[in-house]
Amino acid sequence: MAKIIFITSDSEKIELEATSGSVMELAVQNGVQGIDGDCGGVCSCATCHVHVAPEHFAKTGPASEIEQDMLELDDDANEYSRLCCQIEVSEQLDGVVLHVAK
Amino acid sequence: MSENQTCVVVGASHAGVNFAFALRKAGWQGSIKLFDADPSLPYHRPPLSKAYLTSSDAIDKNLLKAAETYQKDDIELNLGVKVGRIERTAQVLHLENGEQVAFDKLVIATGARPFIPPIEGLDSASNLYPLRTAQDVENIRQAFAHSAQKRVVIIGGGYIGLETAASLKKLGGEVTVLEREQRILARVTAPYMSDYFQRLHADNGVAVATSKNVVRIETRDGENSVQCDDGTVYPADIIIVGVGIRVNTELAVQAGIEIDNGIKVNAQAQTSDENIYAIGDCTYHYNPHYQRFIRLESVQNAVDQAKVAAASICGQEVEYDTLPWFWSDQYDVKLQMVGLSQGYTDILVRDENEPKKFSVWYFKGDELLAVDAVNNAKAYVVATKFIKSGEQIDKAKLVDASVEFKPANLLSRVQVC
């Protein structure tokens, strides 16, 4: 079980718990504003962009090559950006804070 | 202003559902009522022929939104309900069960349905399915599980047919694709891409036969034989039909709304009736970038038109102006496409000197129209930027894999005055 904390662009804080699946699925299942996942989770649409809190970046690790490439479509991307359909829920994520990109 | 009003949406798939949430987000205070004949909670369609088909997931693993989020946004979801007709002047929707639903604004998001070609014997074929709904996938999975030999014939070498071929091959099927044209994907890609995908399927053990016009299906004791006009015959335990779609325009036609290769809409996704909008696969709409009317079958268009219609209904000044993009996953190949290649005069191929990684660039003279990127998200992203900006590409640098793939490196130094 991992607790994952989303902070939306309206500064709403949403704490969710999960054991499996992707972080995007968790967000969509719970209606986290700003995480759309239009492609269903195959890294094709870049609509599940989050900024990992810098102090928690070790929990998620960096974006993969395809994620980094897709993130270049978003001017708002930085070194802490991830597409959260590519983050699998695990114990390692417990307590991670994710800021939903605009 | 909108608090006592009702917005009714016919069709609860990608366009309709995204519209409903976008409308609420844009400030609509009245009621929102979604209707769909499909009894399943609204789900993602693109994975149906891809990862979903090969998984054993139930459709609730593939939902567009969780059930509770509809309640949270006060969106009324009416599933398994068929709409009979639109009474335009009275602004009433008539359901097939006899109920009437009044609307102030109506959104038609009826999408499309598979085209079932008039092939002799098709109606009595065994285990013959299209692939567009969750139920279709369930039927295919069941038939596949109960088939001993798992011989699958797929009629149609478009994206649906090819993705389904790859998925059923992965599940252990003996798969043959029959394409009527001389090459697969003929309508949407250059011959280079058709050749590539033909080889990809052959390498993975799927037979792809072109110039195969299926004229008859004979079925005896549950075993089909699919016959082509050149005399060839293919035995099949399961037949998948993927030869394109027909737009669901019937409601609009009956209501007297303007139709032209789909439901014709303006830049606000509004039909010829100012209180009725149409979004998604069912629309014939203007694309400002390509300066022509088009009809698209895509998630991108469904989502973008949904946003435009929602904003427009809430009084914002918006215009639809987006670049089409698509994707397809087959075996270990991720194909990402941006733009529309129709009308191209030449193509350039950039090979990355890595297996299964390249991109095909469609030009009309010096204008980049579209790119197909194979396992190459960077090419997809760079292409998107160039198509949007209209900046000229140095073609020599583009095809030189030693030039790092960055927009700045590919800019043409010679500016045309």
Keywords:
heterodimer, A: 102 residues, alpha+beta, Ubiquitin-like (UB roll), 5 strands, globular, B: 417 residues, alpha/beta, FAD/NAD(P)-binding domain, Enolase-like, domain 1, 3 domains, 5-stranded parallel beta sheet
Please provide a written account of the structure.
The complex is a heterodimer of chains A (102) and B (417). Chain A has one domain: Roll (Ubiquitin-like (UB roll)). Chain A has 3 helices and 5 strands; from the N terminus they run E-E-H-E-H-H-E-E. Chain A has helices spanning 23-29, 57-60, 65-71; strands at 2-7, 13-18, 49-52, 81-83, 96-100. Chain A is globular and about 30 Å long. The model of chain A has no long low-confidence stretch (mean pLDDT 95). With 417 residues, chain B is of the alpha/beta class. In chain B, 24% of the residues lie in helices and 30% in strands. Chain B has 11 helices and 26 strands. Chain B has helices at residues 14-25, 51-54, 67-72, 134-146, 159-170, 191-203, 250-254, 299-313, 377-389, 395-398, 407-410, and strands at residues 6-10, 31-36, 75-79, 83-87, 92-95, 100-102, 105-108, 112-114, 128-129, 151-155, 174-178, 207-209, 214-220, 223-228, 233-236, 238-241, 245-247, 263-264, 276-278, 283-287, 292-294, 325-330, 333-339, 346-354, 357-364, 367-374. In chain B, the strands form 7 sheets. A 5-stranded parallel sheet of chain B has the order 3-2-1-7-19. A 5-stranded parallel sheet of chain B has the order 9-16-10-11-12. In chain B, strands 22-23-26-25-24 form a 5-stranded antiparallel sheet. Chain B starts with 5 loop residues before the first strand and ends in a 7-residue tail after the last helix. The chains are: A alpha+beta (102), B alpha/beta (417).
